[in-house]
Write a structure and sequence with these properties.
Layout lengths: L1 H10 L2 H7 L19 H15 L13 H4 L4 H17 L8 E8 L6 E6 L2 H20 L16 H18 L10 H5 L4 H10 L7 H9 L2 E7 L2 E7 L11
């Protein structure tokens, strides 16, 4: 009991409290930019990415419904209507309920009985989340938000770059007789159990304002239906926690 009490006190030290305390003021570089009163230059990048999405070649794997590429082949009045809906979603940080239906298809692995789920999201959801991710990733790099140890999904820090570091460490250990330990960790098991509250808390600590990106992150996780297609039939489930596989925000 004494050791448990001591560990609890150390875990709640002033240093830990200051580390986990949200900043007094959020970072202005992470503010939301897309409002009804926003000027045209603030929407230019959104328009450019939208026209690229609807002008692309339709892919084979997509969620039940239409793909964004199909919109580009419709009359202009339907394109304008669809663009207005996309802009409304950005302004209000609210997505239509139909875009919150996610398909999941189990893909067999080489080992018998094991599968890997392939997630398919609605194209409208993917477009908006992809645009937001691209914008905020650039902002986070500009303000140097991430420590050097965070390397995933960052420009110039791809898997090939990490492989070079790994090979260098192995060569150094073999050449100079240094001790080296290799660990294999399945981080997905951890991320599958992170609740939305924890995700929003971490983003707040990093300096994200409560209005804007946090609202869209909560909207992306709220009331999500999952259609699980198996050889025995289709199962309808609800997504409660974790990071959605297939989502750009993951």
């Amino acid at each position: 009991p004494t050791r448990i009490l001591q560990a609890f006190q150390e875990a709640h030290s002033k240093e830990i409290f200051n580390l986990m305390r949200p900043p007094e003021f959020s970072n202005r570089a992470l503010d939301w930019q897309w409002y009804p009163t926003s000027t045209e230059p603030q929407w230019d990048t959104f328009y450019t990415n939208y026209w690229k999405a609807i002008s692309s070649i339709p892919g084979k794997a997509h969620h039940a419904g239409y793909t964004a590429a199909i919109i580009g082949r419709l009359p202009r009045r339907w394109i304008d209507l669809h663009l207005r809906l996309m802009k409304m979603s950005m302004m209000l940080r609210i997505m239509p309920q139909r875009t919150k239906i996610q398909s999941r298809v189990p893909i067999p692995k080489p080992k018998p009985g094991e599968t890997r789920p392939l997630s398919l999201l609605h194209d409208d959801m993917c477009f908006i989340l992809g645009f937001i991710t691209k914008h905020y990733t650039a902002c986070c790099e500009e303000i140097k938000l991430f420590p050097p140890s965070i390397r995933a999904y960052r420009q110039g820090m791809s898997t090939s770059f990490i492989t070079l570091l790994d090979l260098s460490a192995r060569e150094d250990a073999i050449t100079f007789g240094r001790m080296m330990a290799l660990t294999s960790e399945d981080e997905e098991i951890f991320f599958d159990r992170v609740s939305l509250d924890v995700q929003l808390a971490v983003l707040t600590i990093l300096g994200f304002p409560t209005e804007g990106f946090l609202e869209m992150k909560a909207e992306e996780m709220d009331n999500i239906s999952v259609e699980i297609h198996t050889r025995h039939g289709t199962i309808i489930g609800k997504f409660l926690h974790g990071l959605k596989q297939g989502s750009p925000l993951s």
